[in-house]
Specification:
Layout (H helix, E strand, L loop, with lengths): L17 E6 L2 H17 L4 E6 L6 H9 L8 E6 L6 H13 L5 E6 L5 H4 L2 H9 L1 E5 L7 H11 L3 E2 L1 H11 L3 H14 L5 E2 L1 H7 L8 H9 L3 H13 L4 H23 L4 H4 L9 H11 L2 H18 L7 H13 L1
Helix pairs in contact: 2-3, 3-5, 6-7, 7-9, 10-11, 11-16, 12-14, 12-15, 15-16
Length: 333
């Protein structure tokens, strides 16, 4: 399966017959599509057709278009957007057919959102990946965000001081589209070669951070108490209700308890990965967490979750948010 890093795309790159773009980072998917469109235009693919596969979409129309030759045999760019990532039986069969019979003088781009494990293993995706170039728009996580920002600024002939970069990262975390907009703003405000300092960043960069429950799990499991505290503040300030956060935390604690038991019985992480749903970052974070947090602490934390749940339901007095924050910070310590 030819896999290309999204950052390697260039309008000057000779085009392949099929590209498959998927992943959770919307900005990177959009940028990849824009780059391929620019490359197609530069390389003479001036006839562009766009199809969006909704519930009423006629997949036969797509196959007919792919197989048709224009009056002047123009080079064609054929885009297939599948917003929900689920083409269904008819769509899956059509995508397999398309991948196996790629039309001449045509570049096909299949645009997909973040896909689940089952979708990545589906026959239609396997066929697309086998015959095309796969571009995955992976999330730019907290640890990678500062370097991503620095790289983008460098591409615009700007540099940034360490403290200013830390502030910038904090203010745009979890919101890559906003991060790009703030970077573009700095490029308009300052001349080429400028070193962005802390005062520049404070004045120019808006606080547009977007936090979610998955980032919080990564922070406390990895023992990053500073980030966990920042995420908790952002979630509370954003009006997030503790009920969903508490449910997710309790589920993660149960997973760690089960993982601890499995490892004690001599099973490997790989052996229990699927049954415990240790996918993505949790595949590495969960084993780290059970080494750091004892089984007794995990059981006590689960009991504390039950107490906070009673507070949320009004069955027990107390400040649910304050107790939740105290619990998470304790697990992160």
């Amino acid at each position: 399966m030819p896999v290309m890093r999204i950052g390697e795309l260039s309008p000057d790159l000779p085009l392949k017959p099929l590209y498959v773009i998927h992943g959770e980072e919307d900005l990177l998917r959009i940028e990849a599509l824009d780059t391929l469109r620019a490359a197609a235009k530069k390389q003479g693919y001036l006839n562009r057709e766009v199809y969006t596969a909704d519930n009423a979409f006629d997949w036969n129309e797509l196959l007919q278009s792919a197989g048709s030759i224009g009056l002047f045999a123009d080079l064609k760019l054929l885009e297939v957007h599948i917003p929900n990532g689920k083409p269904g039986k008819q769509g899956g069969d059509a995508l397999q057919t398309l991948a196996e019979r790629l039309p001449e003088d045509t570049v096909v781009i299949v645009m997909l959102p973040k896909l689940e494990r089952t979708q990545l293993k589906a026959k239609w995706f396997t066929a697309l990946a086998q015959h095309g170039v796969v571009l995955e728009a992976k999330a730019i996580t907290g640890a990678a965000l500062p370097e991503w920002i620095r790289g983008r600024l460098n591409a615009l002939n700007l540099n940034i001081e360490h403290d200013a970069l830390a502030l910038f990262s904090d203010r745009v975390e979890g919101n890559l589209l906003a991060a790009k907009q703030e970077i573009d703003k700095l490029a308009l405000l300052y001349p080429a070669g400028h070193l962005v300092n802390l005062a520049d960043a404070e004045a120019a960069v808006a606080n547009v951070a977007r936090f979610d429950v998955f980032q919080l799990a990564g922070a406390w499991m990895s023992g990053d108490s500073a980030r966990a505290g920042r995420l908790l503040e952002g979630l509370e300030a954003g009006g997030e209700e503790p009920v969903l956060l508490l449910w997710a935390l309790a589920e993660d604690i149960r997973t760690l308890i089960r993982l601890t038991a499995a490892l004690k019985q001599g099973q490997s992480v790989q052996a229990v990965r699927n049954s415990l749903r240790l996918w993505g970052d949790k595949q590495t974070l969960a084993p780290q967490a059970v080494k750091r947090i004892s089984i007794n602490r995990l059981i006590a934390a689960l009991q504390e979750c039950a107490r906070i749940d009673r507070m949320i339901k009004g069955a027990e007095d107390g400040n649910a948010w304050a107790e939740f924050k105290h619990l998470v910070m304790g697990l992160a310590a």
